[in-house]
Amino acid sequence: MDGIRSGNLRNGLLGLAAGVLLLRFLPQLPPASAVMALGVVGLVLVPFRSYPVGLFLLGFSWACVSAQWALDDRLDAALDGRTLWMQGQVVGLPEMRDGVVRFELAHAQSRRAALPKLLRVSWYGGPHVRAGETWRLAVNLKRPHGLVNPQAFDYEAWLLAQRVGAVGTVKSGQRLGEASGFSFWRDGLRERLVAYDPHGRAGVVAALVLGDGSGLSAADWRVLQNTGTVHLLVISGTHVSLVAGMLYGLIFWLARLGWWPRRVPWLPTACLAAFTGALAYSVMAGFDVPVQRASAMIGLVLLWRWRFRHLGVTLPLLMALSAVLLYEPLVVLQPGFWLSFGAVGLLILSFAGRLGAWPWWRTLGRAQWTMAVGLAPMLLALGLPISISSPLANLLAVPWVGLVAVPLSLASAVLLPVPWLGEATQWLAGGALAVLFQLLEWTAALAPAWLPSRLPFWAWLLVALGAVLILLPGGVPLRALGLLLLLPLWFTPTQRPAEGRAELWMFDVGQGLSMLILTQHHALLYDAGAKFGDFDIGERVVMPSLRALDVRTLDMLLLSHADNDHSGGAEAVFRGLPVAEVVSGDVPGLPGVLQAQPCDERQWQWDGVQFSTWRWADATDSNQASCVLMIEASGERMLLTGDIDAPAERALIDSGRDLRAQWLLAPHHGSRSSSSWALLKAVEPKAVLYSRGRHNAYGHPHPAVVSRYQAFDTRAYDSVKTGALRIDLGSFDEPQALREIPRFWREK
């Protein structure tokens, strides 16, 4: 009877979870009336034998309602780009990097308009901001908006999952109230932890104690990603489970050695102590969604261990999954959710059927092998890189972090008030982390993370099936077939343009430019986006997009000129891919490591596609010196102009070239000083491309320029509205805009 009831419970929980998980794949939310009707049907079905279907409908309805609430709480479109005075409280831990203070403002109020419940703002050159303080701020507000590319971090989905309704830039502000409460205590603890930093790793200690990753540099994150160890340095289920395990293990061994009072049952006490410790650690870490997820999982596992062990090991996983999804349905938009529950499910699959006890070293090795193979399909689906060195790195790092770094870091936080003992413990914790990072850097240098090309669904399905087969217990028939099913990772054929055709991509890089030109056997990148401190468009956007499009080498990296918004990301591309040749119109302004050659007037052909370059010899600044590129495929032409201005445009016209082209990249992002009448008459474009940032400080494209193109009846494609744009040059077809691919969280 218990088996029947537990089976029914599993089926119900599976239906409930599946209903909420479906939210992630919706192109748009259904109408409110449809959601309400589905919810009513679900309520009717639950009392009957169709309760899994009923719970599925209830879960789906709740997810849609919750998502709609978050969408409704976004900044009103009428306020987009406006500056308002407001008053609110700083929540979470503010982050300061490269002179920019970033923090979240909760329950902000303005006399002029209603505001979202949570804002994320940046203050360039701002003062020291503490958690818990109340501020009166003048903020230039913007609706959530992110870059959309073949492969890149989905900022809009992340903001919605955090329920951030607007972002903004602080123009001025005044502190109204001093900090107080628990957030203020956490902020103060962080300051005390990072004040003493003999090994340069105090920021990592703060990450392990408080879940604050702001002390890790971009280089640190790169090392962690390359070695598949991000989960070890940002508080997650691993750390919370460790604290719970230590407390549970302490009571277990006291009872086993006979040192525990017989009047007090050790098992419920151990479970209660473990959950209390895990919950306290979670609260200290800020109790963000990943930590909430871990706390729910641990609580249910401990409850299962205490009273319901006879119901099987999968039940607590399903209960934790359902609890997390019901509490915050939008968690399905976060990659960490899928990876954490996927990892637990894989471990259950790998260890549930084993016979006898394994030695610890074999268990640890098996766990890392399971994670490396089993999570690969999920990483592919999420567009995340696969770490080749992850099994080895985690084999070393997991015990080091779990048994050395985390205990020392927590001890240093507890012992801070003790003058010499607190500093000594911090020195040991920082030293342990410095050793860890040195090992990880060596490992990452030997085998950096690998981002395979984007696979078609059929190929991904084969890889996922292969991973499951490999992880099945030994002796299962056809298990070796799993290795063959992994072959699409390396041998899936890439679709390239036919002879005489070219595939062009205008990447969505904000205020800047990066365009990829692919022929049947060649690749050219025209500009590489900008770099702002640690945020490198070349590394974060251009390189992942090139990998997703299966670009493994560049025949030419053509940097129109040396301005940051065109060449700032070039070094990241140069490091990440073999580049046969770097060409630029402003060689002296570029880093010497690029070994750029000057842009000469030349013509060449790749796979039946014609290319030609031009540069104004009498240019007086970097913009005027931009290297201009003409591409022609099967009679269809595109003119890429960099940042040339009206005098450079006149020189280009006077060169006597045939400038007629169906496609024109608006010179200088649509600046008023460019796109002269003379150029438009010479080119006669049918379509114009604007590559720019939303609400950019320069006002690009200028209204006068827009009206000129409209006078020529030219279709406009704006990266802010289209995201990345794909053009099949030589087909004379309409382009494909990635932002037009429907996602319910994405602003059109």
TrEMBL record:
Classify the protein's membrane topology as the record does.
Multi-pass membrane protein
Q: Transmembrane residues, as ranges?
A: 232-254, 266-287, 308-330, 336-357, 369-388, 400-420, 427-451, 457-487
Can you say what this protein is called?
A: DNA internalization-related competence protein ComEC/Rec2
**Which ranges carry the Metallo-beta-lactamase domain?**
511-694
Look up keyword Cytoplasm and say if it applies.
no
Query: Known NCBIfam families for this protein?
Result: ComEC_N-term (TIGR00360), ComEC_Rec2 (TIGR00361)
UniProt cross-references to InterPro entries, sorted A to Z: ComA-like_MBL, ComEC_N, Competence_ComEC/Rec2, Competence_DNA_uptake, DUF4131, Metallo-B-lactamas, RibonucZ/Hydroxyglut_hydro
- Places the protein is found: Cell membrane
Keywords, alphabetical: Cell membrane, Membrane, Transmembrane, Transmembrane helix
> Sorted alphabetically, which PANTHER family does this protein's record hold?
DNA INTERNALIZATION/COMPETENCE PROTEIN COMEC/REC2, RECOMBINATION PROTEIN 2
